[in-house]
C-alpha cells in the first residue's frame, strides 16, 4: 500500500471535550494534499499540517464551482481500534462525481491509502465516546487561475478530518419535514447523482426556509414532473408502506447513498421486501392518510438513519407511526451503528480495520 | 460617492502586448476586497495589491459552492476616456444571484462605486486597441470554515480585472453549434437565472464534448421538456425568423443577459418586431429547413454578438444565412460596440463615463 510523506505539525492542538463536539467546526492537526497538473497527472501526495489554502482570486473553483467532495467516518471500536465503513464506495463515488465535473479521475487504491494513512496519523483524534466519530472530508477543487469556462488544468485533492459528537444526544427524535414545491435541487441530465458543490448551493435556500417554519429538512421533488420524491435534505429517503420498504430509484438526480445501499442490503438479508422505484408525493401522502405508511426515515453518513415523524405538503399534514421511531428503522439503526462501531459482527465485510 | 482606501502595489507589472491578450489569464496590479461578517454586515471595502486569497480548507465555498459572480467591461473611448456599459445592471443581477444563494445583499451604490474606483486605479490597464477592453469580474465566496450545509456567516466580495483582446481578430466568423440532448444546464426552480458557480460546473462537460466534435458551443434545451431552447453556451440566443426576432423568454432557467436586453431594446427602437417566448428546437429546425430562419446569434458581454452559421441536432443539420453573418446581427454588433467603445452616440444613456 502506498505510503505518503508526512510533515508533522510543530505543535499539536489540545483535543476538544468529546461532549462539546459540533459537526464540522473543529479540524485536526494534519491534512492530506495531492496536486494535479495537466500533463503530469496526480502527484505529490503528502500529509502536512492543517493550514489555509492560498489560491489565486482567479482560481476556477471560486467562479465555476468545479469541485466535488465526499464524506465518511472513522469509528473507534470497543477493542480500541479504528475502522472505516465501506470507504471504497466513497472513493468510487468521488470518481463518478469527478467524471461529471470533468475533473481527472483519482487513483482509487492510492486515494483509499491516503484516507487510511491520514486517519492513522490523526488516530488520537478519533473519539471513543459512544456515538462519536472522526468525520473525513475528501474534496477536489479546480485551481487554474483562468476565467474561461472550461475544465481546469490544475486541481488540489485535499482530505481534512474533524471529530464529531453523537448525532443523537437525547435519544432518536423523529423530525418534521415538508415537501418543497418551489426550489429544485437537481434534475435528470444535471448533477444530482454527484457530490458537487453546486447541488448543495442550490439547496440552501429551501433548507433555510424549512427551518424558519420549524421543519428539520425538505423533501425534494424531481425537477421534471415535480411529483416524484427524491431525497430528504442531504439524505436518501426510505418509506415502509404496507410491509414493503420503498425508496426512490437512482434515476440520475438522486445521490446514490452508501447508507441507503447498506439499508437495502440489510433489509433484503432480513427478508424484508424492498422496492427501488418512482414514488410520488401523492402516493406517499395517500398511504399515510390510509394508515399504510408505517415508517419513514432518511439515511446518510451523518445521522445513519433519521426517522421522520411528521410531514407537510401544502395543506396536507400527516404523522408517521404516531411520531415515534418505527421498529424496522430502529433495527436498521442498531445494526448499522453496531457494524460501524464494531459492537456487532460484520457478516458483509463492510468495515476496514486500520 | 463612496471612496475606498487604496493600498498601492509596491511594484507595478509591465503591461502585456495588446496583440497577445488571452481572455482571463492576465490580471492587473490591484483588486477590490470587502468582507461580510454576520452581525456586522459588509465592511472594510478596500483596494489592495492583487494577491492570493488564503482560505481555510473547510471554507464553505470549496464544499458547497456558495458563490456568485458577474462579468462586465471597461472600454477606452476615442477621447482617451474610460467608460462602463450599464454597470448597475450587473450590480442588480449579482444581488439577484445572491438572493438565490442565500448570500447577503450587496449595497448597490457602494458596489458600483467599488467597480468605478478599481477601474480608475487600474486605468493604465484599459487597452486602447480596437476591440480590446478591461474585463471586470466581481464575485462573492462563502468563507465560513464549517462543513454544515447552511448559509455561511462570512463572505468575501472581490473584484479582479484583466485586459482582454478583441474577440474577433479575423473578422466575425459564424460558429457551428449543436443541440445538447444529454446534459442539462439548468431547470425551472433551480439556479439557471443566476450567475452561480454551479451552473457553469454543470455545463463544462457538454462544452468539452461539443469542442471535441468541432462545435463552438452547445445549444441548451430546457430541463423539463427537453424541447425548448434556452441559451447557447454562456450566451443568450436570438433568432430572426420571417422578419421577427425571437428569443427564449426568461422563465427562470435562462440568464437575463444584459446584452440580450440591450439587443431587444435596440431592435424595438428600430421597429423590428421582437418576441420573448418559448421556442422549441423543432420549431427552429423546421423554420431553418423551410428557409425562414434568416439569422441566429448568441449575445453576451464577451462576444457582444456571436453569429451562428450552422446548427446540428441529432441527425438534422442546417446552415443559417449561408454561413454568413446576417445584416441585422451585423447592425446590432456595430451599434452595441459603437456605444460601448464610445464611437457612436448613446441615446439610451447606457454608458457611464469614469
Ligand atoms: C444529497 C445527499 N443525499 C444522500 C446522502 C447520503 O449518502 P451517504 O449515505 O453515502 O452518506 C448524502 C450525503 O451524505 C447527500 O449529500
Ligand atoms: C449563462 C450565460 N448566459 C448569458 C450570458 C450573457 O449575459 P450578458 O449579456 O449579461 O453578458 C452570460 C454571461 O455573460 C452567461 O454566463
From TrEMBL, chains A, B:
It is an enzyme of class 2 (transferase). The modification N6-(pyridoxal phosphate)lysine is found at residue 195. Pathway: Amino-acid biosynthesis; L-isoleucine biosynthesis; L-isoleucine from 2-oxobutanoate: step 4/4; Amino-acid biosynthesis; L-leucine biosynthesis; L-leucine from 3-methyl-2-oxobutanoate: step 4/4; Amino-acid biosynthesis; L-valine biosynthesis; L-valine from pyruvate: step 4/4. Keywords: Amino-acid biosynthesis, Aminotransferase, Branched-chain amino acid biosynthesis, Pyridoxal phosphate, Transferase. GO terms for molecular function: branched-chain-amino-acid transaminase activity. It comes from the Bacteria. It catalyses: L-isoleucine + 2-oxoglutarate = (S)-3-methyl-2-oxopentanoate + L-glutamate; L-leucine + 2-oxoglutarate = 4-methyl-2-oxopentanoate + L-glutamate; L-valine + 2-oxoglutarate = 3-methyl-2-oxobutanoate + L-glutamate. Its EC number is 2.6.1.42. CDD domains: BCAT_beta_family (cd01557). InterPro entries: Aminotrans_IV, Aminotransferase-like, B_amino_transII, BCAT-like_C, BCAT-like_N, BCAT_family. GO terms for biological process: isoleucine biosynthetic process; L-leucine biosynthetic process; L-valine biosynthetic process. Pfam families: Aminotran_4. Its cofactor is pyridoxal 5'-phosphate. The keyword Transcription does not apply. NCBIfam families: ilvE_II, PRK13357.1. Belongs to the class-IV pyridoxal-phosphate-dependent aminotransferase family. This is branched-chain-amino-acid transaminase. It comes from Lawsonibacter hominis.
Amino acid at each position: 500500500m502506498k505510503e505518503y510523506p508526512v510533515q508533522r505539525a510543530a505543535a499539536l492542538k489540545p483535543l476538544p471535550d468529546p461532549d462539546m463536539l459540533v459537526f464540522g467546526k473543529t479540524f485536526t492537526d494534519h491534512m492530506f494534499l495531492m496536486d494535479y497538473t495537466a500533463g503530469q497527472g496526480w502527484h505529490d501526495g503528502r500529509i502536512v499540517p492543517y493550514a489555509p489554502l492560498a489560491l489565486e482570486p482567479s482560481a476556477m473553483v471560486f467562479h465555476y464551482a468545479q469541485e466535488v467532495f465526499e464524506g465518511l467516518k472513522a469509528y473507534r471500536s470497543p477493542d480500541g481500534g479504528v475502522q472505516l465503513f465501506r470507504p471504497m464506495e466513497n472513493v468510487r463515488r468521488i470518481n463518478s462525481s469527478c467524471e461529471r465535473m470533468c475533473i481527472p479521475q483519482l487513483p482509487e487504491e492510492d486515494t483509499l491509502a491516503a484516507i487510511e494513512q491520514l486517519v492513522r496519523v490523526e488516530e488520537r483524534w478519533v473519539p471513543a465516546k459512544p456515538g462519536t466519530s472522526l468525520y473525513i472530508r475528501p474534496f477536489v477543487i479546480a485551481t487554474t487561475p483562468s476565467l474561461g469556462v472550461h475544465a481546469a488544468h490544475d486541481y488540489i485533492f485535499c482530505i481534512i478530518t474533524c471529530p464529531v459528537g453523537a448525532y443523537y444526544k437525547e435519544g432518536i427524535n423523529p423530525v418534521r419535514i415538508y415537501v418543497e414545491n418551489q426550489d429544485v435541487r437537481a434534475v435528470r441530465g444535471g448533477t444530482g447523482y454527484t457530490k458537487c458543490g453546486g447541488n448543495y448551493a442550490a439547496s440552501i435556500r429551501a433548507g433555510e426556509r424549512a427551518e424558519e417554519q420549524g421543519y428539520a429538512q425538505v423533501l425534494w421533488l424531481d425537477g421534471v414532473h415535480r411529483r416524484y420524491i427524491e431525497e430528504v435534505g442531504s439524505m436518501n429517503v426510505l418509506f415502509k408502506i404496507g410491509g414493503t420498504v420503498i425508496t426512490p430509484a437512482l434515476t440520475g438526480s438522486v445521490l446514490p447513498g452508501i447508507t441507503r445501499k447498506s439499508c437495502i442490503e440489510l433489509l433484503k438479508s432480513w427478508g424484508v421486501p424492498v422496492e427501488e422505484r418512482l414514488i410520488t408525493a401523492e402516493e406517499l401522502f395517500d398511504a399515510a392518510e390510509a394508515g399504510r405508511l408505517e415508517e419513514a426515515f432518511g439515511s446518510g453518513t451523518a445521522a445513519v438513519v433519521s426517522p421522520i415523524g411528521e410531514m407537510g405538503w401544502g395543506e396536507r399534514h400527516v404523522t408517521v407511526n404516531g411520531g415515534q421511531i418505527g421498529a424496522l428503522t430502529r433495527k436498521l439503526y442498531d445494526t448499522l451503528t453496531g457494524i460501524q462501531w464494531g459492537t456487532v459482527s460484520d457478516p458483509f465485510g463492510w468495515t476496514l480495520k486500520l
